[in-house]
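Re: the request from the purification team.
They wanted to know what the chain is likely to look like in 3D before they choose a buffer screen. I agreed to run a prediction and write the result into the notebook, where they can find it.
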Amino acid sequence: MTTEKALFKIIKSEIGGEDFLPNGEKFDYAALFLLAKRHDLVHLVSDALYKLSPEDLSEKARRVYKREHMTAVFREIRFNEATQYIRKIFVLNNVDFILLKGAVIKNLYPEPWMRTSCDVDVLIKKEDLKRAVEVLKDAGFNTDEKVHMHDVILYFNDLRIELHFSLYENLKQTDDILNRTWDYAEPVSDSEYALDHEFFVLYHLAHMTYHTLTGGCGVRPFIDLYLMTEKNFYDKEKLSPLLKESRLESFYELAIGVANAWFGGKELSESGKRLERYILSGGAYGTEENLLAVEGTKHKSRIGYLFRLAFPPLSDMKEAYPKLKKRPVLLPWYYVKRFFLKLFGKNKDKTNARIKVVTDAKFAKELSLLIADMGIDKKDIDNISSANINE
């Protein structure tokens, strides 16, 4: 059995209660563990493998699997405590809010700890941002108060909190409707609101699209989508007009097809196979190589794109070399300096990897086909955040 197939079988067994090795099939335990680790799913794999008979596992392996499982349980306890604390603070201070992502989706899993989250995501109204940050700070949360594209980052007992004031993804086709998020929210109690389930799915797909175009989104969002579909979390007929408005119809069909193949035993289409290869290569949070390749599809010439990476515009160079802000005449010198640092400095291996992915004609062609499969017009990815070419 391939490592990937073993991973999907284990996930299915965990979320669906099936025996993942009904025929005693064999696989590479170490490779499986590493793949699961890359996709932040090692807790599910560990829970399943720990249940195997003692003769199949060494005592050392059993301890590792038990530790990973208990770590996920502990993460969920901390996540839940922080979520409840935020809820209490906002209700007491009359700050309207909506819980997002894992705080909602985890309730569809057999047990909440199975759906890990690296942070707590909460949406508030933009006009309440300053007040929301202040009441959280007063309650013991830490922040530098820096306002990012659509959120402010806070920390509570080392747990990251993303306080969103918008669900804007910097993707033209989805942002018009995402900017109307509160139109699709219903009051739950006091200051708490919840998204319509269909809009929740739409945001899930928009977020998947964004991360797919910026390096990869990992396997977990496909598990989420599979469970939301299998458990009738949403009404497909009500979802359809939202998908049409945001032009996510093709991506929805592609993503649900992959999810059904991985966890429902269906066959993968050719477009599904392309998405599978890309997602598995990117890990849970994507790779810079994938991001650079997506960026490259916007350029007619790969050589031209490579040239732009080698010689960024003055505006980017000023950020990397602040002295250019006062003395732009030194730009040629800094180009030479940057060129030698990239090719011969401590990050030369990273530079070589970039050159390889940008000049890989086969990968570029497959990625262009994948973007077309997703229903994404290349013009619509112009605003997607690109890799920091000055790193």
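For the purification team: The first strand starts at residue 97 and ends at 99.
Please add any questions underneath this entry.
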